[in-house]
Fold each of these.
Amino acid sequence: MLQPVIIAGGSGTRLWPLSRELYPKQFLALTESDKSMLELTVERLAALNCAPPIVVCNEDHRFIVAEQLRLSGSSNNGIVLEP
């Protein structure tokens, strides 16, 4: 079975002033939807026959990732934290 890995790291410097170090672009709703880029990615995976994703993110963003996964109703196979 396919194991998706979502890379959700980053420092939020390239889309300033919308994104910030503590709230980078992957957690922002940038389209006409009210969902973040992370939520939209998880939503796309639901259409595939694959395992729940593993999300890799910065240690400072672990609670944002967990909350957005909870809001999307998605299960996951863990959150891997980078320093």
Amino acid sequence: EEIELDVIAICCDFSEDSFENIADLYGIEFDENDDDDEKQQQVIDFLQSEGAYVGDSINGIVYRNF
């Protein structure tokens, strides 16, 4: 069965952003003593718990919009 690739749908379903912007978007709060690595890991853990984490990129984190 042939399936047509819908690039626009893929672009709408996934995003790439910094961990700071993702935290703001989804209301993830950090402890003031956390360093950037700990904050990024908290965002990744959150996205993984939502089944939305795809991976890291040079520019940030790739995730499925939800």
Amino acid sequence: AVSREEYDKNFHSFTYSLFLQSGFLESVASNGNAHYFNFIRNGEVVGKIAGVEENESRFMGKYLFVYAGPALKEIDETLYNECLIALKKCAPKHNFSRLNILYYDQQYQFKCKAKGYYVRTNREFIRRLEQEEQPLTFNKSFMYNVRKAAKLNPVFYEETSERMLNKLHELLQKTWELRNEKFKGGYAPYPYKHMNKEAVDKMFHEGILKLYALETDGEIHCVRCAITGEKRMYGIMIASDEFAYKNGLQHFLQHKLITQLHQEDYKYYNVSIVDFGEDGLVSYKESLGCKLYKVHGAYTHYIKYPQK
């Protein structure tokens, strides 16, 4: 276990998920419950990982929730498994009864083979922009909606400001009102664990958040919220009102954003996870030109009391 300052040393020399940035962890953690770890072999730091403490009942103890697998000095499957073994040995010393490691923006597709872990799998959709040349291509059905929206003469622009941050939260509430009934009361305006309005505001102040807007006739109807780092982008949320849904404005925003990111030499645009069973979302994300990548996380059962 190390301090945030020690964790951040040479962090960008590792291959890492954007969700392992300390700015993100400090944003979603509360009351100082972000935990940072370095993996050291022969005196050299070969990996890093960070997570959020989750306090369960007194009987169940506390968990360590991690958004992605370790940041690695070398992309090596053996090193990945050795890091997870070391984390499992270290965790009880810090009174963690379980480990729960997800896969958001994970930079490799290794399946955990470390003893004591169980594997979970999901699907991410990524457009790798550094592999593409002009002109960019998109699915025909996607472009139909883009052309439909274009008739309204929408204006697309980046504005990561307090004004736009407030507009994001306002439109997230409208999105929730529109979609919650469809999801039978289970729609979450902030879709990631430990994420809420306060966490998004902190990301803004940490400087890892970018906001993109689409407006018509001077009114903002759609805002894209994403986290970034080293010319990489992970799209967290798109907040829209009813007008945007009816007129395909999200499609227009995505088209303009992908085009801009390509011009700015971004490496990739990750449009996030699609859980198994949500195949309608698969079609939409593939229409953006994204390819499916299977990603694997890992979790333990109890590694200390009450199991022992």
Amino acid sequence: NMQITPLQGQFLGFLVKITQTKKILEIGTYTGYSSLVMALNLPKDGQIITCDRNKEWTKVAQKYWDLAGVSQRIILRL
């Protein structure tokens, strides 16, 4: 229950895109799905700072950010 649904992810990405957001602060990374969706919709110079306290879950997030090629847009703060 801590992760958003795919439909919510699409909506979140849509909001980032239509508002032309360049900076995002996310509190609670979990497995990084929200961060991933937002990063995919950021402009090339956009950036996300995401904060979490669980190193194990954020390792999962980092794996998928790397696979999607958006790691350079995401700063993780533990």
